[in-house]
Specification:
The chain has 377 residues and is of the alpha/beta class. Helix content is 24%, strand content 26%.
Amino acid sequence: MGLWLKNVKPVGFHEAETRTSVAISDAGTVSDSPSPGDEILDARGLFLSPGWTDLHVHVWYGGTDFSVKPDLAGLKTGVTAMADAGSAGEATLHGLRKHIILRRPETIRAFVNIGSIGLVASNRVPELLDTRFVDVERTLTAIETNREIVCGVKVRASGAVVGDWGITPVRIAKRVAETAGLPLMVHVGEPPPRLDEIFALLTPGDIVTHCFNGTRGGAITRNTTVFEYARQLARTGVLMDVGHGAASYDSDVAARSIAAGLLPYSISTDLHVRNVDGPVYDLATTVSKLHAAGLEFKDCVNAVSTNPRRILGLPGVDGLTHGKRADFTLFALTARRKQVMDSEGNSVVLRKVFEPRFTILGNRCDRVEPSRSDRSG
């Protein structure tokens, strides 16, 4: 049985202004018109966007002490695609693939950690203690063996992880990414290494995650020269990713950056066991925070759908094309006051809240559960 979505408001697509309904065949592909007997879903003015995509999650549940069950990051939260950002290194990537990625309905990709052990015991046993923790040849082999799921290389470039290594792990990770023809995702935080050292190694297509962190010495707004460097990189195609996390989103840094013209390319959660019950909760709460920080509605939609989907090679603006696999999120933007927190413990007052209601992936339609941020209150 097919599905006919009526009274939708498409956003984030080509031809978005010209359609108010979308037909999906019983094969799960976009159709030009509904068929007799199709199930009807009257969306009653809900927005329809390309499927929400979280570019930075940790869902290697059982393979790390850090990851959440994929259910907490996926369809039931409005997300149809996600990228696990470095939970697995070369030594454990096969497990992430077999036990998580191949068993889930959502599209899941992986940024492979340059540290061989990944986040098996995150921060208790940092993955970049010394040279023994990186194996370039095995990492390249793991990438080649898993090309269909690997979307990039991940390195955590902050003092708590790299210690005396400084900038060296970033250099190694960048060389591996270049050799494999993949983007590099760099976690930025407290130095060493310094932000300017990291920025000097990045090229178009690379991703700076935790771009609005508020750590001392790691926030892009603490230094005018560094902030201008970040804006220059963004103009040339280096991608800024939010990666909220438990300690990596400062609402003031975000608001000041957005006001000065440095917009996030992608909004992601960095969801893991230490933030899923707050302050992050889910992607809907995170994008609502960025909207409150001054990011325009359409920029918010692009940053949770079209833009990250482009990085993962998934349909985005062309998602309403006949024959494309259906991959959508139906959501409301609701005017209501809601108080949440950023990673620094600062109160953020939301006046408009993104509320996903349904996810549609192929021929399945899932009702989204209430946000954990509402249930926790």
